[in-house]
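Hi P.,

Sorry for the delay on this. The queue was packed all week, but I finally got your sequence through. Input first:
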Amino acid sequence: MTTTDGHILALDLGTSSARGLVLSAADASPIPGALARHKIAPTYGADGSATLDLHEYVEGLLGCLDELQQNGHLDDIGAIVLSSQWHSIVALDSSGGALTPVITWADTRSVDLDLGPSFDERAFHARTGAWLHRLYWTRRIPWLLSTASPSAFAGLPDLVLERLTGERVTSVSVASGTGTLDLTSGGYDDEALEIAGVRADRLPSIVPTGWTGALSKEYARRWPGLVGVPVHPPTGDGAASNVGTGGYDSGTAAVTVGTSAAVRVVHPIDDAPELPWELWRYRVDDKRAVTGMAFSAAGNLHAWLTGVLRLESAEPEGVEIGASHAVAIPFMAGTRPPANVPSGSGVYFGLSFDDTSADLLAAALQGASLEIDRGLRILDSLFGRELEVVLGGGGIDASHWWRRCLTATFARPTTVCAEPEVGARGAAAVALGLSPAPGGEHLTPVPAEVSRVADLRTRYEALRELAIQASAI
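Then the structure:
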């Protein structure tokens, strides 16, 4: 375990906000009141673009640190850690200037690749944990090379780290989310680089987990309390969320619900079980991997429906779990790989005039729960046991009904992480070797709810296949 004197400054680079918060060095819990947030508004275009303004993003993040300093929260910091969204990319010119905005995971622009019959995508997936999907740099970089003349490429966390320290480097965790990492060696994969059409020297150098940088002189003057404080490499948000929720061993699955959702298991990279085609695998740090499945409809689905339906409550009040005769297939934002259902494919089946707004919300949350359950059952099989489950994230925190619904759908007890800041907490735990416990309520599945969801499952699966077929028309 690495220890640190003083508190921990965590920078959380999300899609909807950039935040700075101060954590306790003992257990990575937030210090009350020591939080500054800059809201982010991604720009979406009819061409499939989903981007962030890099300058605005970074300046907003720096403003968060200014706010923390003004309120006296940067005087006792012993470490700086980062948690960041995975999969972002920026094309850079020869001097390191940005030629593009930050291209996020939600951006659908890329190129189709025809690699011929000799390419073995299953072997590629087993080695890199990724597919040849637009989410990854193997398809993003060829597209960017066809539209501009970039000299290099980097992700949002790499550029934030460069802005703070003057060094453009990345972590094995962030690099694994690009789809170009050899998971076993921890270096860039030769075949992935060949497919992308770049050499490794055009990408950020990968530093070990124990690497630290220091703030540049400019920021040493701006925040004197941070002079000499080590800056640790960033952790991908999925890995950080797992560890921060308390899911950091191969017997525990963490279900996190933020803007999107995921179910994941952290395990040693050595002797890792063979990766099923349906799952991805990234790195947590030098010694650990995280295997899981992600879903595009979660907190964004909940927020959208409560707004569209003008619900005063975030809960589907009066609707019993598993009892709604309406079935929602939550493909509003499409699916993640390896499935390729496009956005705009969400479907409701079985609507009637006696359905209420609460029924529609309940059906959507139930559909999202069944999608997550698909991933959990694959992970059960992979690790040869019924996994324990911890729940965390803002979506979990927002709805007691949804927590109960997930517990009934999984048909097993769950533990709810009491700390909503799971990404920042996890980044601190990875950097400093902490093992935070969930520390929240324990939920036991209600037999009647479990039975109703079990009865619904067969109908849901059949209607899900219809929705997938319809999305291809």
